[in-house]
Amino acid sequence: MSDFIPVAEPYILEEDAKAVYECVRSGWISMGKRVKEFEDAFAEYVDVRHAIAMNNGTSTLHAAVRAMGVGEGDEVIVPTLTYISSANSVLFLNAKPVLCECDPDTFNAEPAHMEPLITEKAKVLMPVDMNGLPLNYDRWTEFATKYNLPILADSAEAAGTKYVDKLVGSQVKAHSFSFFPNKNLTTGEGGMVTTNDDAIAENLRIFRNQGQDYRYHHIELGHNYRMTDIHAALGNVQLARLEWAMKRKREIAAFYYEHLKDVPGVRLPYVPDYATRPSWYMFAISLDDKIDRDRFAGRLKEMNIETRCSFPPIHIQPYYVKRFGYKPEDYPVSYKAWKQLLNIPVGLGLTEDQLGRVVDAIRASL
Ligand SMILES: *Cc1c(COP(=O)(O)O)cnc(C)c1O
Q1: What pLDDT is attached to residue 1?
Q2: What's the pLDDT band for 2 if we cut at 50, 70, 90?
Q3: Distances, alpha carbon 339 to alpha carbons 2, 333, 343, in Å
Q4: Is the pLDDT of residue 358 over 50?
Q5: CB 82 near ligand 1, within 6 Å
């Protein structure tokens, strides 16, 4: 239907298509100069020494957790309110993801949520920049130093996010990004790890390339986690447009803040001072207890407006319940947050007219 408003969709222009076409026609379609160009440009953009591209943002998490020394029997502390791959990346290494709560306002984990869970088995801390809202990085760095534990930030949703005066990507030991189609910068499928640590970068480059240090010389058990040049061709164009995208996202968010600020029962995202530029990967409104989220979403759907629930917390995922025996009430803050959060449309292609329709529909549906 032509007046359908999706919650998010990839923003692809003619220049994107042209870059992909040129790459395919060039005959060099994997691990060539476009991947290198994308890595160099991304590293420069976020101001970090190394950027290592991979085939998706789950591979990057797996490879990064491993590169940070996590192995069998170790523990990595991960918020329960996140996407499944944050925790899965730990399980892939036969290590244990120890789940923690989040802050009820930012929905990000804070050091205080992880502190009581640290044991001598803890090897890495993995907080997440949820919905592209930056973590409180100064606090996290201080915490990492206090416990001498490295941080891997799952910054999958935070390409373009600014923390204070700096882009997210160099604040902690390593950051993992995703370029899935609904992210602000997409390559179709893709991911990137950023780090200032030379040894971690070297480890990642070997691991993603079948464990080879040079051709047909395999010194590790590696994977094929390489990014193709076709994906990188798209990434280069998308990265060049990311500052524009951030500007547009900010306008969309500002529209919602202005037009939804006095709607009873709807809480708008809280943005702390240090979050100088959230990426607005998603714009998640939080509904009052008394509002039935699914019925509300159903009404919007009837008006051709798509919404989406946040990720159900890890501790209610059937696989995790089966394996670890979690109950919903084990993490009440995250469970409640998930029940009340609803992502409303934030696609870069939204027009002012469509934004107006979303606002009107929300008012009419309450
Ligand atoms: C998108 C996302 C991922 C995974 O990325 P893929 O590229 O889809 O594998 C990981 N963590 C979070 C928080 C995400 O939003």
Answers
A1: 45
A2: low
A3: 30, 10, 12
A4: yes
A5: yes
Measured by CA distance, the residue closest to atom 5 of ligand 1 is 57
107, pLDDT greater than 60: yes
**Interatomic CA distance for residues 172 and 150, integer angstroms:** 8
Per-residue burial over 53-81, b if 16 or more Cβ lie within 10 Å, else e, is: bbbbbbbbbbbbbbbbebeeebbbbbbbb
Q: What is the mean pLDDT of residues 2-26?
A: 93
The token pair at 154 is: 């799952």
What's the CA angle centered on 56, arms 156 and 305, to 5 degrees?
Answer: 60
Nearest-angstrom CA–CA distance, 208 and 210: 6
Pocket test for ligand 1, best of 7, 61, 76, 85 (most atoms within 8 A of CB): 85
The C-alpha atoms of residue 254 and residue 259 are separated, in whole angstroms, by 9
Q: Which atom of ligand 1 is least distant from the CA of 82? A: 13
Q: How far apart are CA 77 and CA 60, in angstroms?
A: 17
- What one-letter code names the amino acid at 91? L
- The average confidence (pLDDT) of the chain is 97
The response to whether residue 161 sits with its C-beta less than 6 Å from ligand 1 reads no
Any atom of ligand 1 within 6 Å of the Cβ of 157: yes
Residue 362, CA distances (Å) to 178, 340, 359 in order? 30, 15, 5
Mean pLDDT value of segment 324-329 = 98
Do the Cβ atoms of 54 and 192 come closer than 8 Å?
Answer: yes
Distance in angstroms (rounded) separating the CA atoms of residues 130 and 231: 25
The per-residue pLDDT for 337 is 96
Spatial CB neighbours of 215, under 8 Å, sequence gap ≥ 6: none
Q: Which helix (H) or strand (E) holds 18?
A: helix 14-26
Q: What pTM was computed for the model?
A: 0.97
The per-residue pLDDT for 239 is: 98
Phi, psi of 281 (to 5 degrees): -50, -45
CA distances from 292 to 85, 287, 303, 341 (A): 28, 8, 17, 11
DSSP class of residue 204 equals H
Contact predicate 76/246, CB 8 Å: no
Q: What is the DSSP string of 74-113?
A: -EEEEESSS-HHHHHHHHTTT-EEEEE---TTT-S--HHH
Residue 295, SS3?
A: helix
